[in-house]
Amino acid sequence: MDSSILLLEVADQIATITLNRPEARNALSFALMTAIEGALAKIAADPAIKVVVLAANGPAFCAGHDLKEMRTLQSREQVASVFAQCARMMTAIVRLPQPVIAKVHAMATAAGCQIVASCDLAYAADGAKFATPGVNIGLFCSTPMVALSRVVGRKPAMEMLLSGHPVDAATAQGWGLINHAVAAAELDAAVSDMARLIAAKSGYTVKVGKEAFYRQLEMDLDQAYAYTAEVMTTNMMAEDAREGIDAFMGKRPPVWRGC
């Protein structure tokens, strides 16, 4: 992992990944995407980590793909490899066992907006903005559209994609792209409070629930109920579920074992 363009810190069962290309507005170069993939793989393998916060340094959260780097590519295969790598990275966020919270302090555009949409939760400063402006430069935001259209309604998603215009944090909250828009001075505390709240839960239970959430979304109603009933049955037999129920009935704090 390139420690200069991506920072990874772990404290109190919370991992913080920080994009650190401020001079490039945290544009997703090959190297930065590779570093993010590496950090996610490391976190996925560490059951002691219960929550991930995805943040950024500099004047923007993420400006999307590194267009200067993209323009150096000479073949269709080279271009395709960039979008394939980006898809792997976004999918890794969704499939990570731990919940991921986007902490958006400023503008998130194109694939940067895609990152926000791919995270499980998202908090933004009230001055942050979100856009899928590819249409303005002749490159429709087709891959960002995948994540965007899964968290925002069709009409708002198409408005963002077709106009390329940025939307403010309040609108993004209303459309479901982010959970909360807060004052910039309150952003760190709001994200920290939620991360600590989740970290206090059973890591096993949260992992099971996150995986089930995304899988059932792709099923029809009958399949979803059959699948989640099986998930809950397995979950019910786990030690943490038994401990949690016993603790609730005994009016005491649970002691999670992670299994």
UniProtKB/TrEMBL annotation:
Any one GO molecular function term: hydro-lyase activity
Homology family: Belongs to the enoyl-CoA hydratase/isomerase family.
Alphabetized UniProt keyword annotations: Fatty acid metabolism, Lipid metabolism, Transit peptide
InterPro entries the record matches: ClpP/crotonase-like_dom_sf (IPR029045), Enoyl-CoA_hydra/iso (IPR001753), Enoyl-CoA_hydra_C (IPR014748), Mitochondrial_ECH-domain (IPR052377)
The keyword Lipid metabolism appears for this protein: yes
Protein name as catalogued: Enoyl-CoA hydratase domain-containing protein 3, mitochondrial
Gene3D superfamilies in the record: 2-enoyl-CoA Hydratase, Chain A, domain 1, Lyase 2-enoyl-coa Hydratase, Chain A, domain 2
SUPFAM superfamilies referenced in this protein's UniProt entry, alphabetically: ClpP/crotonase
Function: May play a role in fatty acid biosynthesis and insulin sensitivity.
Domain of life where this protein originates: Bacteria
Matches recorded under NCBIfam families: PRK08139.1 (NF006008)
CDD domains: crotonase-like (cd06558)
Species of the source: Magnetospirillum moscoviense
A GO biological-process term: fatty acid metabolic process
